[in-house]
Amino acid sequence: MTVTGSGSGQPQFISSTGNRSLSNAPLIKNSESNQIVMLDRRSWKNLFAYMGPGFLVSIAYIDPGNFETDLQFGAQYKYELLWIILVASCAALVIQLMAANLGVVTGKHLAEHCRTEYPRVSNFILWIIAEIAIVACDIPEVTGTAFALNMLFNIPVWICVLLTGLSTMILLALQQYGVRKFLIAFLVFTIAACFMADLGYAKPNAKEVLKGLFIPELKGKGVVLLV
């Protein structure tokens, strides 16, 4: 893949050859080139404009499903698995940065790139893997929310699962009115605040936390869990 362009201020082009013929895709549409606004001053408004998409991405890491899973394993293995979370988070950050850069440069998301670069059979396999990954990620989200509702309101778990599914369908239906970044940011901050309050209540041993983060150690069933 190569990047070509001129010094006349025109949009650059991406030239790529894969399992298809040579094509040129502009970084931006020529009709939109005069709509790009370069921010020449610093302000909180501009900062929040750039941070908006970050809140959407953070949902993958700050959610009831992740917290519920982490709390269960933390109660069972204490600080033994913290270093795994640190390594996985760093790896996820690198992948997110690469995906973001790819999208900014080419104007396409990963699915579009796969469709363009790979044959149909490979795309079908990738689609199946993606569907399995989505289901695997959604299961802890649903169970985490269901258990939270069960503990808060003493509602049967199966009813909580149905309520969780219903709330998801409602949020999906509201997408036709646009993505509510402020609502998502509010939910993320609420979850983070609850987590910090829980952390203050638990008062973990700082020395043991640092040891678990930076000194890899696995004992007993922790090895099986890592695999």
UniProtKB/TrEMBL annotation:
Q: How does it sit in the membrane?
A: Multi-pass membrane protein
Report the superkingdom from the record.
Eukaryota
Where does it localize? Answer: Membrane
Q: Which Pfam families match?
A: Nramp (PF01566)
Gene Ontology, cellular component aspect: membrane
Coiled-coil stretches are none
InterPro entries, A to Z:
NRAMP_fam
Transmembrane intervals: 44-62, 82-104, 124-149, 155-175, 182-202
Q: Tell me which UniProt keywords the record has, alphabetically.
A: Membrane, Transmembrane, Transmembrane helix
Where does it primarily localize?
membrane
Family assignment? Belongs to the NRAMP (TC 2.A.55) family.
- The entry's protein name is Uncharacterized protein
State the species of origin: Flemingia macrophylla
